[in-house]
């Protein structure tokens, strides 16, 4: 069992932060390591630093020429995405736990105390709204509704104007679950979210009513640990399909309108997936990036020689797939065969969240607070 993904387990509502699983010893072949050293370097545009994050995992996010970053110390920073120049920085008394979410003129942050903070593009606070527990994934906004997920399994819909609660959904929670930063995906006026136990739901963004519920994966095994099959990443959507992947379970795609099953394949991932017009790309356990045919689920290729067993969710940038790892490297893979194109180091600390796309590249935030912007034009 992956010690990072399973490092903190919630059992019967109690967080057992001292429960760890012994890490598997991985030995890489010399040829593999030599190939990684010989790979081309991804051009670095600029770098900066915010505070180190000891518990939370933050997402940098791009919007209208700016890059936003948050940290546990309660700072929110806006950069010029092209140059890295700090445009402003807000220092608050809050302890941020999730961010950054952005859209419709809002910059959204979550706190350990279960509060959502909304700022405008100038850094002025617009509103603050309480929810029931800490927030581990960035709030999302669409159609004038902010949607946020809390660690106790609830999803809230809030008015984007003033933060007032419009609806709440309570998901079922098994006795043993992975403490994760699983978020939600907004598309087509709906909220798509995966849950512990392998369930995927689609609900109305406007009132929280559930449209359909399906099983991505079914619990298997004897012990509660063996039966754990949580969806710990956000689903991905196009105009026809919604796809999700579960830990110790499956990757599966469903019809977006009614949840009808399209295909499912054995897979295990706590990092997540991405899709384009042809393939579904999954960051699987033990450092594997796999591609499956979008319509049939047929396995197209697998890449397992990236020098790490803990990779981030993939993100697509043109013909490239971008993934970070727990050693602070960022990797570019070719989308059609998974071959490594280039890689670069950051500060040596873990990259835990999906890279954020820039017009000419991408950016990442490390656990030590490093902010790195890379170019894919080389």
Describe this structure in words.
The chain has 378 residues and is an all-beta fold. It has one helix at 30-38, and strands at 9-11, 14-16, 44-49, 61-63, 66-70, 75-80, 86-91, 96-103, 106-111, 115-119, 125-130, 140-142, 145-149, 154-159, 165-170, 176-178, 185-187, 190-194, 199-204, 210-215, 236-237, 241-245, 249-255, 261-267, 272-275, 279-284, 288-293, 299-303, 315-317, 320-324, 329-334, 340-345, 356-358, 361-365, 370-375. The chain has a 4-stranded antiparallel sheet with strand order 3-35-34-33, with no helix packed on it. A 4-stranded antiparallel sheet has the order 4-5-6-7, with no helix packed on it. A 4-stranded antiparallel sheet has the order 8-9-10-11, with no helix packed on it. Strand 21 and strand 22 (241-245) form a beta hairpin. The two termini are 38 Å apart.
Task: List key phrases describing it.
mainly beta, 4-stranded antiparallel sheet, 1 helix, 35 strands, disordered N terminus
What is the topology?
Layout: E1 9-11, E2 14-16, H1 30-38, E3 44-49, E4 61-63, E5 66-70, E6 75-80, E7 86-91, E8 96-103, E9 106-111, E10 115-119, E11 125-130, E12 140-142, E13 145-149, E14 154-159, E15 165-170, E16 176-178, E17 185-187, E18 190-194, E19 199-204, E20 210-215, E21 236-237, E22 241-245, E23 249-255, E24 261-267, E25 272-275, E26 279-284, E27 288-293, E28 299-303, E29 315-317, E30 320-324, E31 329-334, E32 340-345, E33 356-358, E34 361-365, E35 370-375
Antiparallel strand pairs: 1-2, 1-16, 3-35, 4-5, 5-6, 6-7, 8-9, 9-10, 10-11, 12-13, 13-14, 14-15, 17-18, 18-19, 19-20, 21-22, 22-23, 23-24, 25-26, 26-27, 27-28, 29-30, 30-31, 31-32, 33-34, 34-35
């Amino acid at each position: 069992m992956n010690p990072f993904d399973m490092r903190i387990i919630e059992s019967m509502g109690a967080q057992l932060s001292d429960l760890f699983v012994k890490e598997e010893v991985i030995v890489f072949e010399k040829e593999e390591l030599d190939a990684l050293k010989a790979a081309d370097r991804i051009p670095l545009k600029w770098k900066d630093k915010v505070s180190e994050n000891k518990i939370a995992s933050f997402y940098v996010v791009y919007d209208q020429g700016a890059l936003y970053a948050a940290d546990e110390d309660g700072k929110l920073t806006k950069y010029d995405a092209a140059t890295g120049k700090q445009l402003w920085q807000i220092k608050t008394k809050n302890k941020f736990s999730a961010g950054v979410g952005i859209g419709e003129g809002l910059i959204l942050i979550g706190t350990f105390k279960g509060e959502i903070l909304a700022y405008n593009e100038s850094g002025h606070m617009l509103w603050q709204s309480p929810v029931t527990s800490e927030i581990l994934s960035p709030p999302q906004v669409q159609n004038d509704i902010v949607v946020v997920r809390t660690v106790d399994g609830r999803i809230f819909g809030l008015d984007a104007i003033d933060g007032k609660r419009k609806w709440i959904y309570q998901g079922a929670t098994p006795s043993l679950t992975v403490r994760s930063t699983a978020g939600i995906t907004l598309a087509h006026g709906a909220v798509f979210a995966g849950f512990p136990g392998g369930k995927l739901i689609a609900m109305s963004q406007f009132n929280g009513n559930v449209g359909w519920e399906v099983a991505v994966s079914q619990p298997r095994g004897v012990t509660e640990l063996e039966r754990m099959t949580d969806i710990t990443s956000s689903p991905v959507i196009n105009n026809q399909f919604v796809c999700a992947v579960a830990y110790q379970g499956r990757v599966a795609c469903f019809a977006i309108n009614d949840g009808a099953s399209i295909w499912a394949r054995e897979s295990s991932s706590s990092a997540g997936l991405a899709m384009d017009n042809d393939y579904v790309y999954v960051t699987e356990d033990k450092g594997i990036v796999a591609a499956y045919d979008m319509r049939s689920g047929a396995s197209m290729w697998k890449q397992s020689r990236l020098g790490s067993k803990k990779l981030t969710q993939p993100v697509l940038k043109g013909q490239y797939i971008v993934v970070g790892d727990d050693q602070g490297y960022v990797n570019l893979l070719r989308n059609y065969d998974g071959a490594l194109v280039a890689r670069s180091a950051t500060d040596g600390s873990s990259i835990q969240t999906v890279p954020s796309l820039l017009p000419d590249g991408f950016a990442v935030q490390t656990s030590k607070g490093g902010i790195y912007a890379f170019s894919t034009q080389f």
